[in-house]
Amino acid sequence: MKEIDMREFAIDRSRYDDAANVVNEFEAPEGLTEELVRKISKDKNEPEWMLKKRLQGLEWFKRTPLPNWGPKEVREKLNLDKIRYYIKPGTQEARSWGDVPEEIRKVAERIGIPEAEKRELGGAGFQFDSQMAYHNLRKELEEQGVIFENMDVAVQKYPEIVKKYFMTSCIPVTDHKFIMLHAAVWSGGTFIYIPENVKVRIPLQAYFRMNARSGGQFEHTLIIADKNSEVAYVEGCSAPVYSESALHAGCVEIHVLEGARVRYMSVENWSKNTFNLNTKRAIVQKNGIVEWLNGNMGSGVTMLYPCSVLVGENAKSDSLGIAFAGPGQNQDTGSKVVHAAPNTYSTIKAKSISKGGGISTYRGSVMVTKNAKNIKCSVNCDALLIDDKSISNTFPFMKIDTNKVDIAHEATVGKIGDEEIFYLMSRGLSEEQAMQMVVSGFIEPVVKQLPLEYAVELNKLIELEMEGSVG
After folding, report:
1. What is the CA radius of gyration of the chain?
2. Looking at 159-212, which runs of residues are DSSP E strands?
3. Is the pTM for the entire model greater than 0.90?
4. Which residue, 75, 148, 187, 343, has most beta carbons within 10 Å?
5. How many domains are there within the chain?
């Protein structure tokens, strides 16, 4: 990967924290009703089966209590009756940035999406609140049969394949309370289909931006990699800062068919008034590979545990993630894997940084079924505490129903050492610069796996969060 000179990269926090002045076509009142669910479906001209799925989600959501585990803020501070679940800006999806309304385009330009698309992306999407504002795919990929669409559009253009995979075997509507909510009010997102034997060498990207006050975003990502295909996909997320709570409850479903490979990467930088309650899961067939790469930054409360279900022999899952918890943040993240076939392999590497009283928690699960012989699994959790006020927790869970396994779990918690800081300061760095350098080294395994733009972004975001750590 190209070496990154952080001195050449300046990040303007206002490009995330400032809201755009947009006149919306429709703003739902606070709260969730059947009338609103039906309006969303009608607005999108959905088939009857999708409306039925939405109404099923709504019914289950009403009767299901909040989870009694995880961050207490979800139970004590999240008021689901104060969220606006559908906000429709007055724009149509464009395939040229020149056709995107100026205020929305300026947000995308501040974040850097059009420029990144020119340099190193095979396709890009930009969603603004509940609606996709821009979506495009390179012509050469279209000619290979690659499908990269807004999820709303995919329901119309590819109804049979969407109906087969959408919230069926991977993440069913009844999975948990926030998936039930998602099923009822989902809007926008990404649909990707990679044909058999096609290998997409440059990443596809979608960026999800919340703008409205008290808003919610519920994009749906569905990726299907056919036999022996390959794709890398990047998601970015952000939202402006408000005093009112916002909610993100997206859903990512990945189907890795025989011999296929999917790399899913995300840098989630929601504002600190956002509850980020996202669900991500992959089903991996014989000889398939899924790779998860996650950076969790801004949100005040996060619950996110990407899951791989290895159902085919020799399937493999690799998960690598970093979470940063600053003042007032509770980052409850981790990874899950289910070994449901013999000779399957998985690795989980989780890193967290806690500063200023922030709470970071690794919550992971490894399950091995009776017929999953000769599996290998390695779990490694590293936590870095910047001060005495911060907290790091580790809650691993393992359920092993067979004897022929090779499983290892390791967890470490450490503080930045005085000797390291003294050594770096003796080489001319300030104390704050020295601490930032140690942190940069700690997150380097994650950063070096990301595309260049996101690597710089994640590194600089953490550098910003580290400002003022001394004193």
Report:
1. 21
2. 189-194, 204-209
3. yes
4. 148
5. 1
